[in-house]
Amino acid sequence: MRTKPLSLRAWRPRLLCLTLLSATVVPFSPAAAVVTAAPASAEQTIQVSGQALITTTPAAARQAALDDAVRTAIEQVLGAYVSASSTLRSTEDFEQLQQRLIKRADGFGRVVQVLAESQQGGTYSVTVRVAVARPSLEQELKAFLTQKGDPRILVVIPEQVLRRVVPDPAAETEVQRALIAAGYRVVDLTQAQHNTLRDTLRGGAIDTQGRSELATRYQADLLVTGEAFAEEYGAVLGQRAYTARLELKVVDLATGQIIFSDAFTGTGAAATDAIAGKTALQNVGRTAAPALPGALLGWLSGNGKTAGRTFTVRFRNVPNFRALNDTLAALRGSAGVNAALNRQFDAAGALAEVEYNGAPEDLAQLLEDLGLTITGLSAGELTVAFR
Question: Domain of life of the organism in this record (predicted)?
Answer without folding.
Answer: Bacteria
